[in-house]
Amino acid sequence: MAIQLNSEQEHRVAEALRSGAYSSSPDVIDRALEVLHENDEWLTANREANDAKIRTGIAELERGAGIPEDELDACLARWKAAR
User: 3-class SS at 3?
Assistant: First the structure.
């Protein structure tokens, strides 16, 4: 099977190769497919718990218990900067 990559995908594969973590383009694609499969399995295994958390969050927002958007943005920015 031949796969056509767009320029962004080619760029990402090239970056992965430059990192030295992969020895070939097929290695990069294999790892990407492995991660996709792991994520899909996790989502399937945790669907009920995730759905319950989403329902809880929606209920909190409907009660007015949410965080104002500007505060949330600032909190997320601080969290991201600390990583």
Answer: coil
Q: For 17-41, how does the pLDDT look when each residue is reduced to its tens digit (9 = 90+)?
A: 999 999 999 999 999 999 999 999 9
- How far apart (Å, rounded) are the C-alpha atoms in residues 39 and 50? 13
CA distances from 75 to 1, 56, 57 (A): 46, 20, 17
Taking alpha carbons only, the member of 21, 48, 49, 20 closest to residue 35 is: 21
Average pLDDT of the segment spanning 48-74: 93
Burial class (CB in 10 A: 0-12, 13-18, 19+), 64: exposed
Extents of the domains making up the chain: 25-82
